[in-house]
Amino acid sequence: MQKYRCQVCNYVYDPALGDPDGDIKPGTPFEKLPDDWVCPLCGAGKEEFVKA
Amino acid sequence: MKTQQIKEDIYWAGVIDWSVRNFHGHTYTTGRGTTYNAYLMLDKKVALVDTVYGPFASEFIENIRAVIDPARIDYIIANHVETDHSGALPEVLKLCPKAKVVGTQKCKEGLYKHYYCDMDFQVVKTGDTISLGKKTLTFIEAPMIHWPDSMFTYCPEEKLLMPNDAFGQHYAAAERFDDEVPESILMDEAVKYYANILWPLGSIILKKIEEVQKLKLPIDMIAPSHGIIWRGDPGKIVNAYVSWAKQETKPRVVIVYETMWGATERMARLMVKGLIDTGVDAGLFDINRADRTDIIKEMLGAKAFMFGSSTHDNGMLPNIAGFLESLKGLKPKNRIACAFGSFGWGGGAVANIEKVIAESGIEISQPALACKYMPDKEEISRCYEFGKAFGAKVLSG
Known about the structure:
The structure holds two protein chains of two kinds. Helices cover 0% and strands 15% of the residues of chain A. Chain A is an all-beta fold. In chain B, 35% of the residues lie in helices and 22% in strands. In chain B, a hairpin with a 5-residue loop joins strand 7 (39-41) and strand 8 (47-49). The radius of gyration of chain B is 24 Å and the shape is elongated. Chain B starts with a strand and ends with a helix.
Protein backbone atom coordinates (compact mmCIF):
# COMPACT_ATOMS: atom_id res chain seq x y z
CA MET A 1 0.00 0.00 0.00
CA GLN A 2 1.12 3.56 -0.74
CA LYS A 3 3.00 5.36 2.03
CA TYR A 4 2.54 9.10 2.51
CA ARG A 5 5.01 11.65 3.84
CA CYS A 6 4.22 14.72 5.95
CA GLN A 7 5.83 17.70 4.20
CA VAL A 8 6.01 19.62 7.47
CA CYS A 9 7.98 17.16 9.62
CA ASN A 10 8.86 14.23 7.29
CA TYR A 11 6.82 11.65 9.25
CA VAL A 12 5.85 8.77 6.96
CA TYR A 13 2.39 7.21 7.29
CA ASP A 14 2.74 3.48 6.64
CA PRO A 15 -0.68 1.85 6.09
CA ALA A 16 0.77 -1.49 7.22
CA LEU A 17 1.39 0.02 10.67
CA GLY A 18 -1.55 2.43 10.87
CA ASP A 19 -1.40 5.00 13.68
CA PRO A 20 -2.12 3.18 16.94
CA ASP A 21 -1.99 6.39 19.04
CA GLY A 22 -4.60 7.93 16.74
CA ASP A 23 -6.78 4.78 16.87
CA ILE A 24 -5.97 3.92 13.26
CA LYS A 25 -5.73 0.17 12.78
CA PRO A 26 -2.90 -1.45 10.80
CA GLY A 27 -3.97 -1.97 7.20
CA THR A 28 -5.81 1.35 6.88
CA PRO A 29 -4.95 3.04 3.55
CA PHE A 30 -4.13 6.75 3.70
CA GLU A 31 -7.25 7.56 1.68
CA LYS A 32 -9.45 5.93 4.34
CA LEU A 33 -8.06 8.03 7.21
CA PRO A 34 -10.71 10.32 8.73
CA ASP A 35 -10.67 13.92 7.44
CA ASP A 36 -9.72 15.21 10.87
CA TRP A 37 -6.76 12.85 11.23
CA VAL A 38 -3.54 14.74 11.87
CA CYS A 39 0.13 13.86 11.69
CA PRO A 40 0.98 12.09 14.97
CA LEU A 41 4.36 13.82 15.13
CA CYS A 42 3.56 17.43 14.34
CA GLY A 43 -0.21 17.84 14.11
CA ALA A 44 -0.33 18.86 10.43
CA GLY A 45 -3.53 17.97 8.53
CA LYS A 46 -3.93 15.32 5.81
CA GLU A 47 -3.54 17.92 3.07
CA GLU A 48 0.11 18.40 4.08
CA PHE A 49 0.89 14.80 3.03
CA VAL A 50 2.33 13.70 -0.31
CA LYS A 51 3.07 10.24 -1.72
CA ALA A 52 6.30 8.94 -0.24
CA MET B 1 12.98 48.89 36.86
CA LYS B 2 9.26 48.77 37.50
CA THR B 3 7.40 45.72 36.26
CA GLN B 4 5.16 47.04 33.55
CA GLN B 5 1.40 46.73 33.60
CA ILE B 6 0.07 45.99 30.10
CA LYS B 7 -3.63 45.71 31.00
CA GLU B 8 -5.55 46.02 34.23
CA ASP B 9 -4.00 43.45 36.59
CA ILE B 10 -1.86 41.98 33.83
CA TYR B 11 1.89 42.56 34.07
CA TRP B 12 4.80 41.99 31.74
CA ALA B 13 7.24 40.05 33.92
CA GLY B 14 9.75 39.03 31.27
CA VAL B 15 13.45 39.79 30.91
CA ILE B 16 15.40 41.72 28.30
CA ASP B 17 18.39 39.89 26.82
CA TRP B 18 20.32 42.91 25.58
CA SER B 19 23.49 41.01 24.74
CA VAL B 20 22.51 37.88 22.83
CA ARG B 21 23.81 38.01 19.25
CA ASN B 22 23.43 34.39 18.18
CA PHE B 23 20.14 32.71 18.92
CA HIS B 24 19.46 29.00 19.20
CA GLY B 25 22.98 27.99 18.41
CA HIS B 26 24.16 30.01 15.43
CA THR B 27 20.96 29.76 13.40
CA TYR B 28 19.71 33.32 13.91
CA THR B 29 21.74 36.50 14.31
CA THR B 30 20.04 38.70 16.88
CA GLY B 31 21.67 42.03 16.15
CA ARG B 32 19.25 43.85 18.43
CA GLY B 33 19.16 41.23 21.20
CA THR B 34 15.80 39.87 22.27
CA THR B 35 13.35 39.63 25.13
CA TYR B 36 11.69 36.65 26.75
CA ASN B 37 8.18 37.79 27.57
CA ALA B 38 6.07 36.32 30.34
CA TYR B 39 2.81 37.68 31.67
CA LEU B 40 1.39 37.67 35.19
CA MET B 41 -2.39 37.80 35.49
CA LEU B 42 -3.78 38.72 38.90
CA ASP B 43 -7.34 37.73 39.78
CA LYS B 44 -8.94 35.48 42.38
CA LYS B 45 -6.57 32.96 40.89
CA VAL B 46 -3.12 33.98 39.69
CA ALA B 47 -1.74 32.82 36.36
CA LEU B 48 1.75 33.14 34.92
CA VAL B 49 1.78 32.83 31.16
CA ASP B 50 5.13 31.37 30.03
CA THR B 51 8.52 31.76 31.69
CA VAL B 52 11.93 32.78 30.34
CA TYR B 53 15.27 31.31 29.25
CA GLY B 54 16.97 29.38 32.09
CA PRO B 55 20.03 31.62 32.63
CA PHE B 56 17.63 34.50 33.47
CA ALA B 57 15.62 32.56 36.07
CA SER B 58 16.84 34.63 39.06
CA GLU B 59 16.08 37.96 37.42
CA PHE B 60 12.72 36.61 36.30
CA ILE B 61 11.81 35.54 39.83
CA GLU B 62 12.76 39.03 41.06
CA ASN B 63 10.38 40.48 38.46
CA ILE B 64 7.57 38.21 39.64
CA ARG B 65 8.25 39.11 43.27
CA ALA B 66 7.97 42.79 42.39
CA VAL B 67 4.31 42.08 41.58
CA ILE B 68 3.31 39.15 43.77
CA ASP B 69 4.66 36.39 46.00
CA PRO B 70 5.30 33.47 43.60
CA ALA B 71 3.74 31.10 46.15
CA ARG B 72 0.38 32.63 45.19
CA ILE B 73 0.61 31.47 41.56
CA ASP B 74 -2.13 28.93 40.77
CA TYR B 75 -1.42 28.26 37.10
CA ILE B 76 1.65 28.44 34.92
CA ILE B 77 0.61 28.36 31.30
CA ALA B 78 3.25 26.70 29.14
CA ASN B 79 2.36 27.77 25.62
CA HIS B 80 5.57 26.28 24.21
CA VAL B 81 8.22 23.76 25.26
CA GLU B 82 11.24 25.50 23.75
CA THR B 83 13.80 26.28 26.43
CA ASP B 84 13.84 30.05 25.90
CA HIS B 85 10.29 30.00 27.33
CA SER B 86 10.46 27.05 29.71
CA GLY B 87 14.06 27.10 30.94
CA ALA B 88 13.17 28.96 34.14
CA LEU B 89 10.13 26.76 34.80
CA PRO B 90 11.83 24.19 37.10
CA GLU B 91 13.26 27.02 39.28
CA VAL B 92 9.98 28.93 39.37
CA LEU B 93 8.02 25.79 40.25
CA LYS B 94 10.10 25.36 43.40
CA LEU B 95 8.56 28.61 44.64
CA CYS B 96 5.00 27.82 43.57
CA PRO B 97 3.85 24.82 45.64
CA LYS B 98 0.25 24.96 44.47
CA ALA B 99 0.85 25.80 40.81
CA LYS B 100 -0.49 23.60 38.04
CA VAL B 101 1.35 23.68 34.73
CA VAL B 102 -1.08 23.97 31.80
CA GLY B 103 -0.35 23.08 28.19
CA THR B 104 -0.96 20.64 25.35
CA GLN B 105 -0.29 16.90 25.57
CA LYS B 106 2.79 17.36 23.38
CA CYS B 107 3.94 20.14 25.74
CA LYS B 108 3.61 17.81 28.71
CA GLU B 109 5.71 15.17 26.95
CA GLY B 110 8.24 17.74 25.69
CA LEU B 111 8.74 19.42 29.09
CA TYR B 112 9.40 16.04 30.64
CA LYS B 113 11.98 15.25 27.96
CA HIS B 114 13.73 18.54 28.71
CA TYR B 115 13.75 18.69 32.50
CA TYR B 116 12.87 15.19 33.77
CA CYS B 117 11.01 16.58 36.76
CA ASP B 118 7.50 15.82 37.94
CA MET B 119 4.98 18.59 37.43
CA ASP B 120 1.32 18.80 38.34
CA PHE B 121 0.28 19.11 34.69
CA GLN B 122 -3.15 19.86 33.24
CA VAL B 123 -3.50 18.96 29.56
CA VAL B 124 -5.73 21.35 27.58
CA LYS B 125 -7.15 21.32 24.07
CA THR B 126 -8.58 23.97 21.77
CA GLY B 127 -11.63 25.57 23.36
CA ASP B 128 -10.77 24.56 26.93
CA THR B 129 -10.97 27.37 29.45
CA ILE B 130 -9.75 28.17 32.94
CA SER B 131 -11.55 30.82 34.98
CA LEU B 132 -9.31 33.01 37.09
CA GLY B 133 -12.28 34.94 38.56
CA LYS B 134 -13.12 37.98 36.46
CA LYS B 135 -10.73 36.88 33.72
CA THR B 136 -10.85 33.69 31.69
CA LEU B 137 -8.09 31.90 29.85
CA THR B 138 -9.07 30.18 26.60
CA PHE B 139 -6.64 27.88 24.84
CA ILE B 140 -6.08 27.36 21.13
CA GLU B 141 -3.75 24.57 20.06
CA ALA B 142 -1.37 25.78 17.34
CA PRO B 143 0.68 22.75 16.27
CA MET B 144 3.74 23.63 14.17
CA ILE B 145 3.45 27.34 14.88
CA HIS B 146 6.13 26.57 15.34
CA TRP B 147 6.57 23.30 17.27
CA PRO B 148 4.11 20.41 17.71
CA ASP B 149 3.42 21.54 21.29
CA SER B 150 2.68 25.20 20.49
CA MET B 151 -0.45 26.82 21.88
CA PHE B 152 -2.04 30.29 22.03
CA THR B 153 -3.67 31.64 25.19
CA TYR B 154 -6.51 34.14 24.85
CA CYS B 155 -8.26 36.25 27.48
CA PRO B 156 -11.69 37.34 26.15
CA GLU B 157 -12.41 39.89 28.89
CA GLU B 158 -9.19 41.73 28.05
CA LYS B 159 -9.26 41.03 24.29
CA LEU B 160 -5.70 39.85 24.76
CA LEU B 161 -4.02 37.18 22.64
CA MET B 162 -0.81 35.63 23.94
CA PRO B 163 0.38 33.54 20.98
CA ASN B 164 3.86 32.81 22.31
CA ASP B 165 6.37 32.75 19.41
CA ALA B 166 3.89 33.79 16.70
CA PHE B 167 4.03 37.52 15.88
CA GLY B 168 7.28 37.92 17.85
CA GLN B 169 10.50 39.75 16.99
CA HIS B 170 14.02 39.56 18.38
CA TYR B 171 14.23 43.15 19.54
CA ALA B 172 15.58 44.20 22.93
CA ALA B 173 14.13 47.58 23.92
CA ALA B 174 13.22 49.46 27.04
CA GLU B 175 9.81 50.08 25.48
CA ARG B 176 7.16 47.38 25.46
CA PHE B 177 4.65 48.53 22.85
CA ASP B 178 4.53 48.96 19.09
CA ASP B 179 3.43 52.60 19.38
CA GLU B 180 6.56 53.40 21.41
CA VAL B 181 9.26 52.14 19.02
CA PRO B 182 10.23 53.09 15.44
CA GLU B 183 7.89 51.19 13.13
CA SER B 184 10.59 50.55 10.51
CA ILE B 185 12.81 48.76 13.03
CA LEU B 186 9.90 46.81 14.48
CA MET B 187 8.71 45.59 11.08
CA ASP B 188 12.27 44.85 9.96
CA GLU B 189 12.69 42.54 12.94
CA ALA B 190 9.21 41.02 12.44
CA VAL B 191 10.07 40.21 8.80
CA LYS B 192 13.39 38.69 9.80
CA TYR B 193 11.71 36.59 12.47
CA TYR B 194 9.02 35.27 10.12
CA ALA B 195 11.52 34.59 7.32
CA ASN B 196 13.96 32.68 9.50
CA ILE B 197 11.54 30.81 11.75
CA LEU B 198 8.14 30.53 10.11
CA TRP B 199 8.65 30.71 6.33
CA PRO B 200 8.24 26.93 5.68
CA LEU B 201 5.07 26.82 7.80
CA GLY B 202 2.98 29.25 5.72
CA SER B 203 0.16 26.86 4.87
CA ILE B 204 -0.34 25.94 8.53
CA ILE B 205 -0.16 29.59 9.62
CA LEU B 206 -2.75 30.61 7.05
CA LYS B 207 -5.17 27.92 8.24
CA LYS B 208 -4.68 28.86 11.88
CA ILE B 209 -5.28 32.57 11.19
CA GLU B 210 -8.47 31.67 9.27
CA GLU B 211 -9.58 29.44 12.15
CA VAL B 212 -9.04 32.21 14.70
CA GLN B 213 -10.72 34.80 12.44
CA LYS B 214 -13.80 32.54 12.15
CA LEU B 215 -14.06 32.45 15.94
CA LYS B 216 -14.47 36.26 15.71
CA LEU B 217 -12.47 36.78 18.88
CA PRO B 218 -12.15 40.46 19.63
CA ILE B 219 -8.42 41.19 19.90
CA ASP B 220 -7.00 44.59 20.79
CA MET B 221 -3.61 43.43 21.97
CA ILE B 222 -1.24 40.70 20.81
CA ALA B 223 1.43 39.94 23.36
CA PRO B 224 4.05 37.58 21.91
CA SER B 225 6.84 35.82 23.78
CA HIS B 226 9.63 37.83 22.11
CA GLY B 227 9.99 41.53 21.57
CA ILE B 228 7.38 44.21 21.33
CA ILE B 229 3.65 43.95 22.15
CA TRP B 230 1.19 44.91 19.40
CA ARG B 231 -1.51 47.23 20.72
CA GLY B 232 -1.54 50.26 18.40
CA ASP B 233 -2.61 48.16 15.44
CA PRO B 234 -2.58 44.40 16.09
CA GLY B 235 -4.23 43.85 12.69
CA LYS B 236 -1.08 45.12 10.98
CA ILE B 237 1.05 42.16 12.01
CA VAL B 238 -1.78 39.66 11.39
CA ASN B 239 -2.24 41.01 7.85
CA ALA B 240 1.51 40.90 7.30
CA TYR B 241 1.55 37.24 8.37
CA VAL B 242 -1.30 36.47 5.94
CA SER B 243 0.67 38.07 3.10
CA TRP B 244 3.91 36.24 3.97
CA ALA B 245 2.08 32.95 4.46
CA LYS B 246 0.49 33.36 1.02
CA GLN B 247 4.05 33.83 -0.29
CA GLU B 248 3.13 37.19 -1.80
CA THR B 249 6.17 38.90 -3.31
CA LYS B 250 7.33 42.13 -4.92
CA PRO B 251 9.26 42.42 -8.20
CA ARG B 252 12.58 42.30 -6.42
CA VAL B 253 15.68 40.21 -7.10
CA VAL B 254 18.07 39.07 -4.38
CA ILE B 255 21.50 38.04 -5.66
CA VAL B 256 23.63 35.91 -3.38
CA TYR B 257 27.11 34.88 -4.46
CA GLU B 258 30.45 33.58 -3.30
CA THR B 259 33.64 34.49 -5.13
CA MET B 260 37.28 33.36 -4.99
CA TRP B 261 39.33 35.95 -6.88
CA GLY B 262 36.59 38.37 -7.83
CA ALA B 263 35.41 37.06 -11.22
CA THR B 264 32.04 35.83 -9.95
CA GLU B 265 31.66 39.07 -8.03
CA ARG B 266 32.41 41.04 -11.21
CA MET B 267 29.67 39.04 -12.97
CA ALA B 268 27.23 39.69 -10.13
CA ARG B 269 27.88 43.45 -10.21
CA LEU B 270 27.28 43.56 -13.97
CA MET B 271 24.07 41.58 -13.60
CA VAL B 272 22.73 43.86 -10.89
CA LYS B 273 23.26 46.82 -13.24
CA GLY B 274 21.17 45.03 -15.85
CA LEU B 275 18.47 44.32 -13.30
CA ILE B 276 18.32 47.92 -12.10
CA ASP B 277 18.14 49.18 -15.70
CA THR B 278 14.98 47.12 -16.26
CA GLY B 279 13.39 48.92 -13.32
CA VAL B 280 13.28 45.92 -11.03
CA ASP B 281 14.35 46.31 -7.40
CA ALA B 282 17.53 44.41 -6.54
CA GLY B 283 19.86 43.61 -3.65
CA LEU B 284 23.34 42.09 -3.88
CA PHE B 285 24.86 40.01 -1.07
CA ASP B 286 28.27 38.38 -0.70
CA ILE B 287 27.58 35.30 1.40
CA ASN B 288 30.92 35.75 3.19
CA ARG B 289 30.30 39.33 4.21
CA ALA B 290 26.54 39.65 4.68
CA ASP B 291 24.78 37.87 7.52
CA ARG B 292 22.98 34.72 6.35
CA THR B 293 19.86 35.41 8.41
CA ASP B 294 19.67 38.98 7.10
CA ILE B 295 19.85 37.64 3.53
CA ILE B 296 16.94 35.29 4.27
CA LYS B 297 15.01 38.31 5.57
CA GLU B 298 15.70 40.12 2.29
CA MET B 299 14.52 37.10 0.30
CA LEU B 300 11.12 36.73 1.98
CA GLY B 301 9.41 39.43 -0.04
CA ALA B 302 11.41 38.95 -3.25
CA LYS B 303 10.00 37.31 -6.36
CA ALA B 304 13.34 36.14 -7.69
CA PHE B 305 16.79 34.98 -6.71
CA MET B 306 20.14 34.75 -8.53
CA PHE B 307 22.81 32.51 -7.05
CA GLY B 308 26.44 32.68 -8.09
CA SER B 309 29.59 30.76 -7.29
CA SER B 310 33.04 30.20 -8.64
CA THR B 311 33.86 26.58 -9.40
CA HIS B 312 36.15 24.89 -6.90
CA ASP B 313 36.88 21.15 -6.81
CA ASN B 314 34.37 20.73 -9.67
CA GLY B 315 31.52 22.17 -7.59
CA MET B 316 30.33 25.33 -5.90
CA LEU B 317 32.13 27.01 -3.00
CA PRO B 318 31.36 25.75 0.51
CA ASN B 319 29.61 28.74 2.07
CA ILE B 320 27.13 29.32 -0.76
CA ALA B 321 26.58 25.54 -0.74
CA GLY B 322 25.64 25.67 2.94
CA PHE B 323 23.39 28.65 2.34
CA LEU B 324 21.55 26.93 -0.53
CA GLU B 325 21.12 23.80 1.59
CA SER B 326 19.33 25.91 4.21
CA LEU B 327 17.17 27.45 1.47
CA LYS B 328 15.76 23.99 0.70
CA GLY B 329 14.34 23.84 4.22
CA LEU B 330 12.56 27.18 3.80
CA LYS B 331 10.49 25.80 0.90
CA PRO B 332 9.93 29.10 -0.93
CA LYS B 333 6.94 29.01 -3.28
CA ASN B 334 6.05 31.06 -6.40
CA ARG B 335 9.66 32.15 -6.95
CA ILE B 336 11.98 32.07 -9.96
CA ALA B 337 15.75 31.79 -9.95
CA CYS B 338 18.88 31.38 -12.06
CA ALA B 339 22.56 30.57 -11.57
CA PHE B 340 25.86 32.10 -12.65
CA GLY B 341 29.55 31.86 -11.89
CA SER B 342 33.11 31.77 -13.17
CA PHE B 343 35.27 28.71 -13.70
CA GLY B 344 38.80 27.84 -14.72
CA TRP B 345 38.72 24.53 -16.59
CA GLY B 346 35.96 21.91 -16.17
CA GLY B 347 33.34 24.01 -14.43
CA GLY B 348 30.59 22.53 -12.26
CA ALA B 349 29.34 25.24 -9.89
CA VAL B 350 26.39 26.47 -11.97
CA ALA B 351 25.16 22.91 -12.59
CA ASN B 352 25.34 22.24 -8.85
CA ILE B 353 23.45 25.46 -8.09
CA GLU B 354 20.73 24.61 -10.61
CA LYS B 355 20.36 21.19 -9.03
CA VAL B 356 19.74 22.70 -5.59
CA ILE B 357 17.36 25.32 -7.03
CA ALA B 358 15.32 22.51 -8.60
CA GLU B 359 15.37 20.51 -5.36
CA SER B 360 14.06 23.57 -3.54
CA GLY B 361 11.01 23.62 -5.79
CA ILE B 362 12.01 26.93 -7.38
CA GLU B 363 11.57 27.43 -11.13
CA ILE B 364 14.80 27.95 -13.08
CA SER B 365 13.60 30.63 -15.45
CA GLN B 366 16.71 31.07 -17.57
CA PRO B 367 19.77 28.90 -18.31
CA ALA B 368 22.86 29.60 -16.22
CA LEU B 369 25.67 31.88 -17.37
CA ALA B 370 29.24 30.69 -16.77
CA CYS B 371 32.42 32.59 -17.71
CA LYS B 372 35.98 31.25 -17.95
CA TYR B 373 38.31 33.17 -15.61
CA MET B 374 37.67 36.93 -15.86
CA PRO B 375 34.87 38.04 -18.21
CA ASP B 376 36.13 39.59 -21.47
CA LYS B 377 34.43 42.45 -23.32
CA GLU B 378 31.79 40.22 -24.88
CA GLU B 379 31.17 38.35 -21.64
CA ILE B 380 30.83 41.65 -19.76
CA SER B 381 28.05 42.53 -22.14
CA ARG B 382 26.48 39.07 -21.73
CA CYS B 383 26.47 39.42 -17.92
CA TYR B 384 24.70 42.76 -18.17
CA GLU B 385 22.19 41.33 -20.66
CA PHE B 386 21.72 38.27 -18.43
CA GLY B 387 20.61 40.62 -15.64
CA LYS B 388 18.35 42.56 -18.01
CA ALA B 389 16.71 39.41 -19.34
CA PHE B 390 16.08 38.10 -15.84
CA GLY B 391 14.75 41.47 -14.69
CA ALA B 392 12.31 41.47 -17.60
CA LYS B 393 11.09 38.00 -16.60
CA VAL B 394 10.54 39.18 -13.02
CA LEU B 395 8.57 42.21 -14.17
CA SER B 396 6.45 40.21 -16.61
CA GLY B 397 5.51 37.51 -14.12
